[in-house]
Amino acid sequence: MKLVPDTSVVIDGRVSAGVESGEYADATVIVPEAVVGEIEAQANSGRSTGWDGLSELQRLADLADDGDIDLQYVGDRATEEDIKRAAAGAIDAIIRDVAVEHDATFVTSDIVQSEVAKAKGLDVQYLEPLDEEAGALDIEQYFDESTMSVHLKAGVVPMAKRGDVGDITYQEIGSTKLDVDTLKEYANEIVDTAKRTDEGFVELSEEGMTIAQIRDMRIAIARPPFSDGFEITAVRPIVKTTMEEYEFAGELKERMLERDRGILIAGSPGAGKSTFGQAVAEFLDDNGYVVKTMEKPRDLQVGDEITQYTELGGSMENTADSLLMVRPDYTIYDEVRKTDDFEVFADMRLAGVGMVGVVHATRPIDALQRLVGRVELGMIPQIVDTVVFIEAGDVDTVYDVSTEVKVPEGLMEEDLARPVIQVSDFETGRPAYEIYTFNRQVVTVPLDEAGGSSESGVGNLAKQEIKREIQSATRGPVEVELRGQNTAVVYVSDDEISHVIGKGGGRISEIEERLGISIDVRTLDELPDTPTASGADGSGSAEPQGEVVTPDITSRHINIPVESASPGDTVEVQADGDYLFTATVGRGGDIQVSRGSAIAEELERAIDRQERITVVAND
């Protein structure tokens, strides 16, 4: 009996095991030099598979010395180029050629190699891969029971995030700086283990970045040039919770069981969003719902009954299409970040699937605002009806989201009635925010404790819109003073009054009808000497508050750099102290306004008038 083993069975020790069991007694074992070269290369790079293969070759040599087998090494060694192209099948082809040349049985535990060999007419013995339990990894020495994540980088002492949920600190856990060789040994062990055991898998493998899941650990391995140094980050959950451990647990459970919901779980990094999402998933599963997850990477710690899906063909949209065929009752989407994610979340929700999305946000309302502009405004309450904000590992705020056709708070005219998204406190039922379209803009207006509009909300909004409409009819300065909820006084230069009023009052009447506000037009000389209209000395504009910024105007956008607020924060943009618009700071630390929009035109006019542009963070 002549055998040609490939690299997979040599690494697994299957040939010597077969000899010792008697299956391969007195066999001629022909080992291609290409196998030896591949195993040697793996051992030189510190991979455990290489050392396992070398041990098997030594056992075969001992069996040959004892006369149990005839051992031969044949063929040419694999070149460095062949080893680099091993994943493409270069070495496999060399090994198959040896089996053909010696008319030997080809032995492999690689299913693809087996099928290719059969197609080429070889006598093939396929051995099922050994199921191995993943032993303790070397990086696990850095974990203790309070460690959430370990951060290892070449040239830096080991670091870790440790503590309780909501009270995590980033701290040194060693005194000796790590070297590249040590990190490479850790990385090779991680990848080999992920590939060889049922307890792990490789989630992502790209040039410069590998992400593996082994048991409850998600491990990211970054290499130059993708990163500036060799780095390994291992994350694992430090707690697993149930719904009963959270504030409002009873009400939330009842709400989810009542009917399929659209829920956003929001919070800052490390607040415990995914931990709560895992608790929700297992609660729904325990109550007879079909629950799936959409994750990249997959790291929620859920029971085997809940199938965890990742990107299909590099797209969550493809995953969603497949899930719609599976028809889950609820899908946990961890995490919803990009526009594509929000669109997939919305599509699945509108298709009737209960959706629970995990979103980064620093305030509860920010999670809902991230849908604005990504989906049609009127559809938001059909997509998301509940916002759960997690802080320090517990439920801090719950919002109920609904829609109603009404006059927004602070506006009085009946013809201003429109669809208004009401965001209410789940516990008290008191409205906290209103979201609606006002003069072609989507605005989010905070309400005070009595349920009315806050001073910085509708008042600033009304002044902004009045000023914008008047400035469309004049080139000079414009000041606006609100006298009531539906009355305003506009001050313009003396020679602009007739142009603003229009022939027979036609122009100002059109503006009044459009805004639903009665407007009295006066000259700037009649402007009261008040803090809102002038400085402390009675001359000029109010001293602008907040961060003074310099907008950058490009062909398509106006970019406003912001240093005083973090990405995701909501801020007001002002010109010489007058409100222009409210915006959310983008991930790049700036605000981007599309040119041609009403907001952009107003901003450009303010820049042309050399008004001071400031950004004021909302409290």
UniProtKB/TrEMBL annotation:
Domain PIN: 1-115
Stretch list, region Disordered: 523-552
InterPro entries with a match to the protein in the record: AAA+_ATPase, KH_dom-like_a/b, KH_dom_type_1, KH_sf_prok-type, Nucleic_acid_metab_PIN/TRAM, P-loop_NTPase, PIN-like_dom_sf, PIN_dom
Signal peptide span: none
Pfam families in UniProt: KH_1, PIN, T2SSE
Alphabetical list of SUPFAM superfamilies matching this protein: P-loop containing nucleoside triphosphate hydrolases, PIN domain-like, Prokaryotic type KH domain (KH-domain type II)
GO molecular function: RNA binding
Alphabetic keyword roster: RNA-binding
Residue intervals of the AAA+ ATPase domain: 259-384
Record-given protein name: PINc/VapC family ATPase
Native species: Salarchaeum japonicum
